[in-house]
Amino acid sequence: MVDHTYKKIELTGSSTMGLQDAIESAINKASQTIPNMRWFEVIETRGNIVDSKVAHWQVTIKVGFAIL
């Protein structure tokens, strides 16, 4: 097994579709500039309510990536 060093960053993704889409949106956007992403953890979830319905989701995640 190889030892690794990781760095963590915090991201917030948003979506009108749901929690998973918000997470995937944040990871997809970050992958355009951050290589070697390995894992994420959900830190916070919140949403926007319009006319008594959930209109928008926001999910804050921490993403770990390997420093090579």
Can you describe this structure?
With 68 residues, the protein is of the alpha+beta class. The chain has a single domain (5-67), classed as Dodecin subunit-like (2-Layer Sandwich). It is 19% helix and 59% strand. The protein is built from one helix and three strands. A three-stranded antiparallel sheet has the order 1-3-2. The mean pLDDT is 95.
Structural class category: alpha+beta
- Strand count, sense and closure of the main sheet? 3 strands, antiparallel
Please tell me how large the radius of gyration is: 14 Å
Order of helices and strands: EHEE
Mean pLDDT: 95
Observed structural traits:
68 residues, alpha+beta, Dodecin subunit-like, 3-stranded antiparallel β-sheet, 1 helix, 19% helix, elongated
Topology:
Elements: E1 5-15, H1 19-31, E2 37-50, E3 53-67
Antiparallel strand pairs: 1-3, 2-3
In a few lines, what is going on in this structure?
With 68 residues, the protein is of the alpha+beta class. It contains 1 helix and 3 strands, in the order βαββ. Strands 1-3-2 form a 3-stranded antiparallel β-sheet.
